[in-house]
Amino acid sequence: MSKIIILGIGNQLMMDDVVGIYLVQELEKANFNPDVQYIVGESDVDYGLEKVEGASCVIVIDAVYLGKEVGEVTVMSLEELPKQQTLDISPHNLHLFQALYQRKDYQKGYLIGVEPQEITFHIGLSKNLNAEWDRILEKVRGIIKELVSKEY
Questions:
Q1: For the chain, what are the domain ranges?
Q2: Could you tell me what percent of the chain has a pLDDT over 70?
Q3: How far apart are CA 45 and CA 52, in angstroms?
Q4: Which of 35, 63, 134, 147 has the fewest CB atoms within 10 Å distance of its CB?
Q5: What's the burial of 88, exposed, middle or buried (CB within 10 Å: 0-12/13-18/19+)?
Q6: DSSP one-letter code for 130
Q7: Is 4-151 in CATH node 3.30.420.240?
Q8: What does pTM read for this prediction?
Q9: HEC letters along 12-80
């Protein structure tokens, strides 16, 4: 059986940066698959890397700046990330995504990115991201269902 880790990263004190954490917390409530584990990694990259050890597939959920509309959801294979011109799409990515990329031969990985409105000191999502919450949640739920089904 595959062991799949869904890792939500972000900083709860930095407005829309928290979106990965909020999504993992919400999605975990409806998880009935024992082979899928939801983990809140916050911004502790080393903790996140420790938790994904031994997983066959890692799905990272994070706020990412890709120049799209606020709330737009993008999926990328972690193998694709080094092809990006720079890796400054997320404040967490440098160490985490490079480490996951090093494991690409034996561990599949994906990034589900949500375009933030603003990342600044503030607790809670921005008005625009909050208004899109239900749509974002359902979109991410569908993406995870599709990615998990690929693993079986």
A1: 4-151
A2: 89
A3: 11
A4: 134
A5: exposed
A6: H
A7: no
A8: 0.89
A9: CCEHHHHHHHHHHHHHHCCCCCCCEEEEEEECCHHHHHHHCCCCCEEEEEEECCCCCCCCCEEEEECCC
